[in-house]
Specification:
With about 325 residues, the protein is mostly beta strands. The chain has two helices and 26 strands. The strands form seven sheets. Strands 7-8-9-10-24-20-19-13 form an eight-stranded antiparallel sheet, with no helix packed on it. Strands 4-12-22-21-18-14-15 form a seven-stranded antiparallel sheet, with no helix packed on it. β2 and β3 form a beta hairpin.
């Protein structure tokens, strides 16, 4: 594995350049990884064995957690501009280039895509605080208008996203994915709610803002957010982390929990709570988004930019009320 490492003493960021510039670790000075990241030897990734016969299974075969970039596709595989696009986009699995700007705290990563699009991600740590700034630009290298989906896929796990931890985010309209209907799915598929306390499939009250202590599988989409931020905090150990972004860049938030699921590739081993800023929803892929009229378009030779800020803070029982672009948390 070719790795890029950012470190300012307050936060250490490990990035796998060979696999999608995936952020594998966000480490505190005490050595706690705030992301879910598993050192599973199975299942065998399709890239070192054979295809599982499905774009979804191929992607999941190499999934071990972490934080992926989804571009120019997010969700289901499909064909766009005559080009097959894999599940969650090829840049989440390809090798990226790195250009350092000095001091081990500032790097720009770049990749092309199957469509005539490129992506450039600058990752910069604050001089002393546990704050990571991500500044990105996508470019259209062609004379044609090109559609795209763009999003981030950070998966948090214990000790941060442990049972009883809290999720804070602005109120928004929440819809559940119509296709999530397994034994561990406690929400009515295709139903609409307001973020927070909802009604489950058996009429029971469910508080989505608390990480559950028993197996669950959930996939939801939160739209009409009041502001672009989210946080997860565990008062039991004082760990807290959050994201902020511009709603013009990512107006939607995908909310995914895979906790104790027994199917491929989990086999009961996963404990994931993911909070994923995205350009659109649901996560059914670019081909479906084009058909629904929700895909974004990049004009010929055009550019678009986005930014996110990741921050670590001391968690208490008091909820987070906001996180600004500088990573300052308001309680």
């Amino acid at each position: 594995m070719t790795e890029a490492v950012l470190d300012n003493g307050a936060l250490k960021v490990r990035i796998d350049l060979d696999q999608g510039a995936e952020i594998t670790h966000l480490l505190t000075p005490q050595g706690d990884n705030l992301l879910f990241h598993a050192d599973w030897r199975s299942p065998l990734p399709s890239g070192i064995s054979q295809s599982y016969g499905s774009q979804l299974l191929d992607w999941l075969s190499a999934y071990r957690g972490g934080w992926q970039e989804l571009f120019p596709n997010g969700g289901g595989a499909g064909t766009v501009m005559g080009t097959p696009l894999p599940f969650h986009g090829e840049v989440s699995r390809t090798r990226w280039r790195a250009e350092w700007h000095g001091a081990g705290r500032d790097v720009t990563l770049s990749s092309g895509t199957r469509l005539p699009l490129t992506i450039h991600r600058r990752m910069r740590l604050d001089a002393s605080r546990p704050v990571l700034f991500i500044e990105e630009t996508i470019e259209n290298e062609s004379a044609r208008t090109v559609p795209y989906i763009w999003g981030h896929h950070p998966a948090f796990g214990p000790p941060l996203a442990a049972p009883g931890a809290w999720i804070d985010l602005p109120a928004g309209r929440l819809s559940t994915d119509a296709g999530v209907d397994g034994d561990l799915a406690d929400l009515v598929p295709g139903s609409t709610h307001v973020w927070g306390k909802v009604t489950g499939r058996r009429g029971e009250p469910i508080d989505l803002s608390v990480v559950p202590d028993s197996p669950r599988e959930r996939l939801c989409y939160i739209e009409e957010l009041a502001a672009g931020w989210c946080a997860i905090r565990n008062p039991a150990n004082g760990l807290g982390a959050g994201l902020s972004w511009d709603l013009a860049d990512f107006p939607n938030l995908w909310f995914w929990q895979e906790i104790g699921g027994t199917g491929f590739p989990w086999y009961g081993r996963a404990a994931i709570t993911a909070l994923e800023p995205a350009t659109q929803s649901p996560s059914h892929g670019l081909e479906a988004a084009i058909a629904a009229g929700t895909a974004r378009q990049l004009e010929p030779h055009g550019r678009a930019s986005a930014r996110l800020t990741f921050t670590v803070f001391a968690a208490t029982d008091r909820p987070v009320a906001g996180i600004d672009a500088e990573g300052v948390v308001r309680i």
